[in-house]
Design brief:
heterodimer; A: Helix Hairpins; 2 domains; elongated; B: mainly alpha; two-stranded antiparallel ribbon; two-stranded antiparallel sheet; 38 helices; about 70% helix; about 5% strand
Chain lengths: ~180, ~1000
């Protein structure tokens, strides 16, 4: 099936200009690029329809072979309306961005920049003071007075035998 | 009196019997009961507080009773099988099988489970945070364990296996506010799911090799080639990680951050037993396979000694138990994996004994913590005197752990020593290794057990004594029952032998089979027992010196540190990779995607040189002119510095498209495109009036040239793709048949329209939902909350008409100079914003335009037009009203909510699709009606027109939403911000901020 060179050139030009605009930071330009790429794609579908013909409307004396292909046309018709819906949405986004931040630019993601520059702060837990040897602590029914204390000075107390071992406990007990 | 009591007893017994027969063989039903029970638990805790745990205990109790009822059949050597089909294509089924081993594990899992739940009812307070979640998870965990020990399908086994991992993660992390709790939970999850996944590979290998997914059939087939060895080793990784065997042992002590009942159940009786269970399950088939003994006995001995050694170092009673559990798991692994009949019997007895005494001890620690507020044995003193019952219960469990007669622990240990000694003296090297390792481990067990008992209950000089406190019977119930069972089963050792021998029968018989008994006479095994007890005692007495030695031997090497290092490494690598690839810049991402697209498709096109497409210059000369205008406009749009300019230039390409469509023979497209261009232009104007006129100078991350190259190459590539694609086309288009289809089936002459509403109706339905989503998005971005019907000051029509008429009368009176209004809400605009010419024109054309739109809608089936074009024309009429009269006029012109229009439109479309289903036809089938109306000719109607009306309404809704949001609401917000503020100044300051 032969292709019209003129249509090809128009399509290529629309794609090229559209992509050029899409790669910009200005949201308005991105939207315009989106519209151009949309037109280019519709043109691509139109090119696949092939030759020029009469409108695809059944009438006496017109053979289906003489009509333009109705399938791509149906696709393009929906594409046109969807493009309008999506661009309306983009316009609302632009307006919102401008109203909130006086900003018409696509900004870099702040978290990604922070990760790159090493300034990403992880949320702190704020609860590193868990007492590890009890679930109840001073809430115990008859809690001993040292309940809930993390370190006990028991070097001189009854259990000299076990002293000093706390520094060498391994295998996860410290976690 | 007595007889009536007797009668009641009899009736209760009969009821119990009936219940028993009802529960018989209902393993799948019980599984379901666990699931349902867990789902409704939060409701119960809300109602009954902590007492809801008693309700939760009903399910495992019923499962326990059901298993007891099966006892006679199991003991007779029968296996009870239940199966439901699942994925037949993969030979997967929900099949459960209860034989002696599963029966034993079921009793342990459900019995201990029920008691732990009862214990929970006193352990927690009713106002505990997320008690409902905890209860639900614990019950679900019991159910998952129940399924795990009964599953016969390897895939089902795997699912339950992973379910226990996930549930244990949630249970360990119960105290969500504590960092230790969360990181311990994550660690346990990572280690056990890692093992689980490795195991899954092994299970799949086994299932593929043997051609069945039934566990019992795989074990019966018992392949022993290299593939089977690899598969079994992979499965062992899963089993060992689950059972906290070296080198995976470190997660278990960390998991002690869980509430103590969880530790008692998951980390003593149930989950950590899963690996032991799997080894015991596989041993009859695979104990002689290459590598089995090395892995099982080697790692078992290391774990047993290492765990015992570490247990001696701990001050936290719970950690003493945790390391003790690690040690005991190593012990059990050696025995159940050993592979002789006597060892298997000893292993089963040991498993039962351990479940009983270890859960007792954990529950006792929970009570101590509850009371004294600490589990540190350096802080506890004199608790034995204040809580004698608890001390006795604990002592009974400790007796079983160290193997003192007459406990079940003693019976099991005797059996272990006998079995290992028999094999060792028969000349097995592994027998000696195991025997020495187990003896050494037992010495350590005796030492840390004695230290535990001493640390918890003794009086220590210089430490504040515990205050007196009541011992609650209900709190002590669960540990007391468990400890008593350990004693009672020891006394009934010969009976236990009969229960468990069904499992050991699966192993080849030795010369003379061992039988469990409390007293075997003065034997070598008894001597070893006595020796370990004595040595352990000495070790305990010399605990001061032992601690010094331990300190001196501390190497600083630990599996937990290695785990932490690898996790940190993974985190850091992930961060580095992310920062390298995720630059956070949208243009950068887009550029990368497009470059990859161009390079890959371009390369494919280069390599595949079947470019058969032919080119012609143009279809008709006008194409050339249109093309030139479009290209110039597109290129100029990229260079335009002002917004308005750029928008108009892009609009020119759209008009060009419309012209191309018209000349190409697509009138529907031309009509729709031109309408959309106008509406888009209006929408742009509405937004642009709030933005600065000039486009910003910030362009993109990439240089202009790079962007031009990317854009140019994509354009060129697409042209080549079009040529190649068309050249490759060989078949006739499917749409050649559409003409006939449209006319005969769809009763319409306009093929495109029939395609949209009938032939390809589903596509249009999808499109409608996209439009509705976009419209809703527009409205929500501008209005933020709601569609803001109230924000539009709608003028009541009757009221407006009256005032308009009155004004018209007045304006015809030449004596007044007051300007009248041609529109309903005409005078709400400021005079300087009004245009009388526009008002008159709009007044005159609005209704004709609506009529035209309706004509397009209804005629569209046979001529150019249809719902899309009609809707857009109607939308244009609304645009005109808004432009002429402002937001008040829009409210008067369209007093309906845009959301309602969209909704009604979708309902009509969906209705047209669904109604044929009621009549038994396919969805979207259209029907055709014809009426003779005498002199008026004939009236025809196709149901797909209703679909088109839906489309019409949705499109109007979209335009209305755009007008209301970007038009009316923006006006209102502007008025709110203050009309007097100079917009130029505002814009300038904004731009400064944007560029700074």
């Amino acid at each position: 099936m032969s292709v019209s060179l003129v249509l090809l050139v128009v399509m290529a030009a629309l794609y090229a200009s559209g992509i050029y605009l899409l790669l910009e930071r200005s949201m308005t330009r991105v939207l315009l690029g989106f519209l151009l790429v949309g037109n280019a794609t519709n043109l691509l579908i139109l090119i696949t329809a092939g030759k020029v013909g009469s409108a695809p409307i059944v009438a006496d004396g017109v053979a289906p072979e003489d009509m333009t292909d109705p399938l791509p046309e149906a696709l393009i018709l929906t594409a046109i309306v969807i493009t309008f819906g999506v661009s309306a949405f983009l316009m609302a986004l632009i307006y919102r961005s401008w109203k909130l931040a006086r900003q018409d630019n696509v900004q870099d993601d702040a978290d990604d920049i922070a990760l790159r520059t090493g300034t990403l702060l992880l949320p702190s837990d704020g609860s590193d003071t868990d007492s590890s040897d009890t679930e109840f602590g001073l809430r115990g029914e008859a809690a001993v007075s040292t309940a809930g204390e993390l370190e006990v000075e028991l070097e001189d107390a009854a259990d000299n035998a076990t002293s000093g071992a706390d520094t060498s406990t391994d295998d996860g007990s410290a976690r | 009196m007595l007889s009536s009591a007797f009668q009641m007893l009899r009736r209760a017994y009969a009821a119990a019997l009936r219940l028993n027969s009802a529960l018989e063989g209902q393993m799948l039903a019980i599984l379901l009961a666990f699931a349902v029970g867990s789902l409704v638990m939060p409701l119960f805790t809300r109602q009954f507080g902590r007492n809801a745990f008693f309700i939760a205990a009903i399910v495992p109790t019923a499962a326990f009773v059901a298993a007891l009822v099966e006892g006679p059949r199991i003991l007779a050597g029968e296996a009870i099988v239940q199966s439901a089909s699942w994925v037949d294509e993969l030979a997967m089924s929900v099949s459960v099988r209860m034989d002696t081993l599963s029966w034993l594990l079921t009793l342990v899992v459900t019995g201990v489970g029920a008691l732990v739940l009862i214990y929970c009812a006193r352990y927690f307070r009713s106002d505990e945070d997320s008690l409902g979640r905890f209860a639900a998870l614990l019950l679900a965990f019991a159910g998952a364990m129940y399924g795990l020990v009964l599953a016969d399908d390897v895939y089902l086994l795997f699912i339950f296996w992973e379910a226990t991992s996930v549930l244990s993660y949630l249970l360990i992390g119960h105290y969500t506010g504590k960092k230790t709790s969360r990181s311990a939970a994550l660690q346990a999850l990572l280690v056990t799911t890692f093992g689980g996944l490795v195991m899954f590979v092994g299970l799949v290998l086994l299932a593929v090799e043997t051609g069945t997914s039934s566990l019992s059939a795989i074990i019966a087939a018992a392949p022993s080639d290299t593939l089977a060895v690899v598969a079994i080793m992979l499965v062992l990784v899963g089993a060992l990680s689950k059972s906290a065997i070296f080198p995976f042992h470190f997660w278990l002590p960390a998991a002690m951050a869980a509430p103590t009942p969880v530790s008692a159940y998951l980390h003593a009786a149930a989950m950590v037993k899963a690996g032991i269970y799997l080894v015991a399950r596989l041993a009859p088939g695979f104990a002689e396979i290459d590598g089995w003994h090395e892995v099982i006995i080697g790692l078992g001995v290391i774990t047993m000694v290492l765990g015992g050694w570490n247990a001696l170092k701990q001050h936290d009673l719970k950690l003493v138990l945790a390391y003790g559990t690690v040690s005991q798991l190593g012990f059990m692994l050696i025995v159940v994996g050993y592979g002789t009949r006597d060892a298997a019997l000893a292993g089963a007895a040991l498993l039962l004994a351990h479940a009983l005494f270890k859960s007792t001890l954990f529950l006792a620690v929970g009570i101590i913590d509850h009371r004294a507020g600490t589990r540190d044995l350096r802080k506890l003193s004199g608790l034995g005197r204040e809580a004698p019952v608890l001390a006795v219960i604990t002592a009974a469990a400790i007796a079983s752990m160290v193997g003192l007669p007459p406990t079940l622990g003693f019976v099991a240990k005797e059996a272990v020593f006998t079995a290992l000694l028999a094999d060792a003296t028969a000349g097995s090297l592994f027998g000696w290794v195991a025997l020495v390792g187990v003896a050494l481990g037992s010495v350590l067990t005796v030492a840390y057990s004695a230290r535990f008992l001493w640390g918890a209950f003794s009086r220590k000089p210089g430490v504040e004594a515990c205050r007196s406190v009541n011992e609650h019977v209900d709190f002590l119930l669960a540990p007391a029952l468990l400890a008593t069972s350990g004693l009672a089963l020891g006394l009934m050792a010969s009976l236990v032998d009969g229960w468990l021998s069904g499992y050991s029968m699966a192993f080849p018989a030795g010369e003379e089979s061992y039988h469990l008994a409390l007293w075997h006479g003065l034997e070598p095994a008894l001597a070893i027992s006595a020796l370990t007890l004595a040595s352990g005692g000495v070790l305990f007495m010399a605990r001061q010196r032992v601690a010094h030695i331990q300190k001196a031997l501390g190497t600083g090497l630990s599996a937990a540190a290695a785990y932490n290092r690898s996790i940190r490494f993974i985190d850091r690598t992930a961060a580095r990779t992310t920062s390298l690839t995720q630059r956070g810049s949208l243009p950068f991402y887009l550029g990368v995607i497009l470059t990859v697209f161009t390079v890959t498709i371009g390369t494919t096109l280069m390599l595949n040189r079947t470019w058969t497409g032919e080119l012609r210059l143009w279809d008709y000369p006008a194409q050339l002119a249109i093309a030139a205008v479009m290209i110039v406009a597109a290129v100029a749009a990229t260079r335009a510095g002002k917004r308005f300019q750029a928008v108009v230039l892009v609009g020119v390409t759209g008009i060009g498209m419309s012209a191309l469509f018209a000349l190409q023979g697509a009138p529907d497209l031309a009509l729709t495109q031109i309408l959309v261009e106008v509406v888009t232009l209006v929408a742009f104007m509405l937004v642009l009036r709030r933005l600065p006129a000039r486009l910003g100078h910030q362009h993109g991350t990439a240089h202009k040239g790079i962007r031009a190259v990317i854009g140019g190459s994509v354009g060129l590539l697409m042209a080549v793709v079009a040529v190649v694609a068309l050249g490759a086309r060989t078949e006739l288009p499917i749409s050649l048949e559409w003409a006939q289809l449209a006319f005969e089936e769809g009763h319409g002459r306009n093929i495109v329209n029939v395609a949209l509403v009938d032939l390809r109706g589903w596509d249009t339905m999808g499109e409608l939902s996209v439009i509705i989503a976009a419209a809703t998005g527009v409205a929500s971005l501008i209005f933020i909350s709601g569609r803001g019907v109230d924000n539009l000051p709608t003028v009541a029509r009757r009221e407006a008409k009256k005032t308009a008429r009155a004004r018209l009368r007045r304006s015809s009176d030449p004596t007044t100079t007051d300007r009248g209004s041609w529109l309903l809400a005409g005078r709400t605009l400021a005079d300087r914003n009004r245009s009388i010419l526009l008002e008159v024109v709009v007044r005159l054309i609005f209704h004709p335009v609506i009529v035209v739109s309706l004509y397009l809608l209804l005629a569209g089936h046979n001529a150019p037009g249809g719902g899309f074009a009609g809707g857009l024309v109607a939308g244009m009429a609304l645009v005109a009203r808004y432009l002429a009269g402002g937001r008040h006029e829009l409210g008067a012109a369209a007093p309906v909510d845009a959301g309602k229009l969209l909704g009604v439109g979708l309902v009509l479309a969906v209705g047209t699709a669904m109604v044929p289903l009621i009549f038994g036809a396919d969805a979207l089938t259209s029907s055709y009606f014809e009426w003779e109306l005498g002199i008026f000719g004939e009236l025809t109607f196709v149901t797909s027109t209703i679909f088109d009306i839906g489309v019409y309404l949705v499109v109007i809704g979209l335009v209305l939403d755009v007008l209301r949001s970007l038009g009316a609401e923006v006006d209102r917000q502007y008025e709110e911000d203050g009309v007097h503020e100079n917009p130029v100044e505002k814009v300038a300051s904004g731009e400064r901020r944007a560029t700074s």
